[in-house]
Amino acid sequence: MSDQPGPQGLTHSGVMDWMTRFAATVRSVEPELTALDQKAGDGDFGANLVTGMDGVRRALDALAASVGNGGSRRGPDAPLDAAARVFLDDVGGTSGPLFGLLFQELADALGMAADPPGTAALALGTAAGAAAIQRVGEAEVGDKTMVDALVPAARALASCEPTADPAHALHVAAVAAHRGARSTTDLRARRGRASYTGDHARGVPDPGALAVALLFASAHAELTSLSRLPVA
Ligand code: ADP
Ligand code: MG
Questions:
Q1: What's 106's domain CATH number?
Q2: What share of the chain is helix, strand, coil (3-state, %, to 5)?
Q3: Of the bound ligands, which one is closest to the alpha carbon of residue 135?
Q4: Considering the entire predicted model, what is its pTM?
Q5: Is the distance from CB of 164 to CB of 193 less than 8 angstroms?
Q6: What pLDDT is stored for residue 1 in this prediction?
Q7: Mean pLDDT (10-residue bins), the chain, 232 residues
Q8: What is the DSSP string of 151-219?
Q9: In this structure, which of 23, 136, 159, 228 has its CB flanked by the most CB atoms within 10 Å?
Q10: Of ligand 1's atoms, which has the minimum distance to the CA of residue 44?
């Protein structure tokens, strides 16, 4: 079994494995995400996310080589920082830079935490990521966006004991994000390209919100389908 966030806190290799599992999950689930964005948006969301996470995988390989040479600091924030650079600099669509902001805030919170960072840092980073995305994208909960998954995930993390096992906290966040993503199904989109499709988006869950749930769920396992997302 690969390295998962353990009770001792988040490690460099644990976060490397988390991001690697998320990249594999995104590749497996891309057809489902594309189908949802074809119904509710312009159809490019799955491709944007795969492009991003393929770039992250290459950045993680470069990071691993650099750490091996003694060229980079071996912190748990480094893989998230690498992911942020890729999404902020290279990934298109509305979602690309917004995921970049989430990765950046998570990296900053883990980087500033006492060593080793755990649940308290995850809660701070996720809340800061949600706030940054809302500042830039101006979406509120109920607008049928990734914010509908991220805000409940941040609340769920904040409700965990700060010293709780981060593996447990990430599972709680995945369950809350999935519930939030499912709650978008009957909503009309008010942000992004999905807002141009009017009532066509009703009956379709928001793919960006589901991707937030996939991110937290990938802390535990690579997922092969949206049907594998955890429920309480
Ligand atoms: P676009 O809407 O520009 O085609 P993508 O297809 O890359 O962007 O991403 C679509 C996803 O981005 C949506 O499923 C939604 O979750 C998210 N999104 C779109 N606009 C916003 C926004 N203003 N704030 C937060 N998330 C948004
Ligand atoms: Mg789109």
A1: 1.25.40.340
A2: 65, 0, 30
A3: 1
A4: 0.95
A5: no
A6: 39
A7: 64 97 98 95 95 98 91 90 97 95 98 91 98 97 97 98 96 98 92 77 93 98 98 88
A8: HHHHHHHHHS-TTS-HHHHHHHHHHHHHHHHHTTTTPPP-STGGGGGGGGGTTS--HHHHHHHHHHHTT
A9: 23
A10: 6
pLDDT in tens, 164-195: 999 999 999 999 999 999 999 999 888 878 78
Please report whether residue 171 resides in a domain: yes
Q: Compute the distance from residue 40 Cα to the ligand 1 centre, in Å.
A: 11
Q: Which residue has the tokens 């750490």?
A: 67
Beta bridge mates, 32? none
pLDDT of residue 149: 98
pLDDT, residue 112, reads 95
CA of 129 relative to ligand 2 center, distance in Å:
21
Structural domain containing residue 39: 12-228
**CA-wise closest residue to 155 among 138, 130, 183:** 130
Question: What is the rounded distance in angstroms from the CA atom of residue 127 to the CA atom of residue 123?
Answer: 6
Surrounding residues of ion ligand 2, Cβ less than 5 A: 41-42, 44-45, 193
- Domain tally, the chain: 1
Residue 5 falls inside a structural domain: no
Report if residue 161 sits inside a domain: yes
Predicted local confidence at residue 8, as pLDDT: 66
Instruction: Answer whether 94 contacts ligand 1 (Cβ < 6 A).
Output: yes
- Output the pLDDT for position 232: 82
